[in-house]
Amino acid sequence: MPTRFAALLFALLPLAALAQEQAAELVFESVALEVGEAVDGQLVLTNLGEPQQPTLVAPPGLELQITNPRPSQSSQTSIINGRRSQRITYVYALRLTAKKEGVYSLGPFTVTSGGAAHRTNALNINVKPATAASRALGDQYLFAKIDVTPTALYVTQSLTATLTIGVRKLEIDGRLTEVGSLLQFIDGRSSQLSVFGTSFSSSEMSLNDSAGGKHPYLLYRNSVEIRGEKVGTLGVGPVFLKMNYPTQLSRGVFGGVEASRSRKETARAAAIDVEVKGPPEQGRPADYTAAIGQYKFKVDVKPDRVELGRPFTLSLTISGTPLDGVAGPELSRYSELVSRFDFASDELTGDVEGGGKVFRRAIFPRQQGEQTIPSLSWSYFDPTSEKYVTLTSDPIPVIVDPPPAGASATMVELPLAGAETNKNGLTVLTGGIAPNYVDANAVLADHSLTLQAAPTAGFLLGPPVVWLSVTLVTRHRRRLTSDIGFRRGRSARRTALSRMDAALRLVNPADQWSGLAHALTGFICDRLNLPPGERTPAEVRDLLRERRTSDPLADEIVGFLQSCDAVRYAPGAVGSASPAQMVSKLRTWLDTIERSVR
Fold first, then answer.
1. What is the DSSP letter of 585?
2. C-alpha distances in angstroms, 75 versus 71, 295, 489, 524, 532?
3. Can you tell me the distance from the alpha carbon of 307 to that of 546, in angstroms, rounded to the nearest whole number?
4. 236 forms bridges with which residues in the sheet?
5. Beta strand pairing call for 294-302 and 32-34
6. What's residue 15's pLDDT?
7. Quick one: how many helices (H) and strands (E) in the chain?
8. What is the spatial distance between Cα 179 and Cα 165, in angstroms, rounded to a whole number?
9. What's residue 131's pLDDT?
10. Which end of the chain is more exposed for a tag (fewer CB within 10 A), N or C?
11. What's 494's DSSP letter?
């Protein structure tokens, strides 16, 4: 009996180990944050099957985002005592931002995969108040400030928001040390820049601390234009900065200097609320079309003389700012214009020309003689005076001549029963738009029917060519939708270039090299339709050689990947080139691989 029990237990051990691997786990780099600080995390799903995208709701005071709606996937196969096992992992990348001081419970969350529901672990998140800033900026090693002009505006108007970051210059062993841009020591992954980008101008200034000491600072500024799209409150910020402020420097891998020792410095700029107002209801003109700004209105008619049956071109020009969304006047509102002219009643669409928006409409006179384009008006709201303004055009006289002889103002219709007809079976009625001919026998009297080679060929070949083009485009789109491998291969180069750009935006040079290596190996996997995941230099060499890539190119690529792996431990491993300079070489490799691997 004991022997049989032991045998059964031994047989169940692999299943028990597999059950332990099955998990839905929530992991973050840190669970202690300051207000405004952000931290990266992961939702790791092991051996649960392909999941449905989960809905993760954080408690008030925290903000949680999934930064990759499609999880990354990796697999690992192992053989132990002749038994083969496989572990498949799906990973969602997360970003957690602390909004308010407090202690929060994050999770557990429910994840659905394979029709079954699984629960994650729960985490306690401790959010501390932001580091208090002293009254004097000169007491701080790092500070941030947001300025907004104006702080109240009308919808469709724009404001200018400026972020200023101040960093005290490095003073090591009693001496000022120049290290280029101090922004390189900002922890970009833990910082939040709100609407502000990463392009800053720099200047210098001195600030006094609370004890009267003077310290030099580098100021970095970035300004953005923000348009008020809807009525309500528009928040600009907040901004949170986390910096590894150097206290000791050493020679860097690529010839510069880097922080061998540092201390944590944080800064926070509170959000500024901007009031976005709508134009008032009181005093609003009937022809108001929601334009807010300052404008001019002009009406032109060309030509000033036409024959009956031919149109005038009525042009209405609105100049000023802003022009986005500006609509022209509704012509059907003017009874005098409607009674004298025929025109389409659909909404006018304008073209931006020379600082103005021009609305054009063809209008057909109803009768001959001297006519008048009546006064037209257009209204807008002036945010400076906070009043409505109505602009009115002057009446424009025009002349409508009779139609030329032989083409009187007639309209041709099929005869009605009992109506007097001519020998061609046509009834001549007065009114309407004049035809070129009223005698049907004269229509083709002086015209011979001929087919010219080029136009005829184009007419006959056009439909088949259009059909073939549409068919090819439809098949291509269908393949992009249904064939994942084909889609990955077609977008491999674009994806790699995007990853390279993202790598160059990283602060740490070592991270930049790692990002470039990831972009290159990811391109190879996408191009060859291989499962995503990290590839060793040796695996990359084998893959390239299997696809008959030249040995020198394969060796060059593998050497680059090996250098990137060793960059943290072997100074100078990638030579004297910078990551930005290496991008050109990587682009050449991408093009070569793309041509050789089909």
1. H
2. 13, 63, 21, 18, 9
3. 78
4. 272
5. unpaired
6. 40
7. 8, 34
8. 17
9. 66
10. N
11. H
Closest CA to 288 of 258, 337, 330: 330
Question: What is the Cβ-side half-sphere exposure of residue 123, based on CA atoms within 13 angstroms?
Answer: 20
Q: Based on the number of CB atoms within 10 Å of its own CB, is 578 exposed (0-12), middle (13-18) or buried (19 or more)?
A: middle
Tokens 């909004």 belong to residue:
99
Peptide bond into 238 cis (omega under 30): yes
Q: For 418, left (φ over 0), alpha (ψ -120 to 50), or beta?
A: left
Report d(CA 536, CA 531) in Å as an integer: 14
pLDDT by 10-residue block (mean), the chain, 598 residues: 44 43 81 86 86 89 87 82 81 89 91 86 89 72 93 91 94 82 85 87 90 90 92 92 88 71 89 93 91 94 92 94 88 92 85 90 93 94 93 95 67 38 44 45 49 62 72 60 62 83 77 84 81 71 77 83 66 60 85 76
Q: How far is CA 101 from the centre of its chain?
A: 32
Domain boundaries, the chain: 21-128, 137-277, 295-401, 484-596
Burial 496-525 (b: 16+ CB within 10 A, else e): bbebbeebeebbbbbbbbbbbbbbbbbbbb
Q: What are phi and psi of 317, to 5 degrees?
A: -115, 125
Q: Within a 10 A sphere around the Cβ of 85, how many other Cβ atoms?
A: 14
From CA 129, how far away is CA 61, in angstroms rounded?
12
Identical fold at 21-128 and 295-401?
Answer: yes
The residue to which tokens 């909404």 are assigned: 347
* pLDDT at site 597: 66
Q: How far is CA 568 from the centre of its chain?
A: 34
CATH superfamily assigned to domain 21-128: Immunoglobulins (2.60.40.10)
Architecture of domain 295-401: Sandwich (2.60)
Alpha helices in 235-341 (DSSP H): 335-340
- Tokens 């062993």 found at: 173
CB neighbours of 211 closer than 8 A, spacing ≥ 6? none
- 8 A C-beta contact, residue 224 and residue 161: yes
Phi first, then psi: what are they for 521, rounded to 5°? Answer: -65, -35
Give the residue from 64, 14, 72 showing the smallest Cα distance to 39.
Answer: 64
Contact by Cβ (8 Å): 194, 148: no
- Residues paired with residue 47 on neighbouring β-strands, in sequence order: none
d(CA 191, CA 442): 82
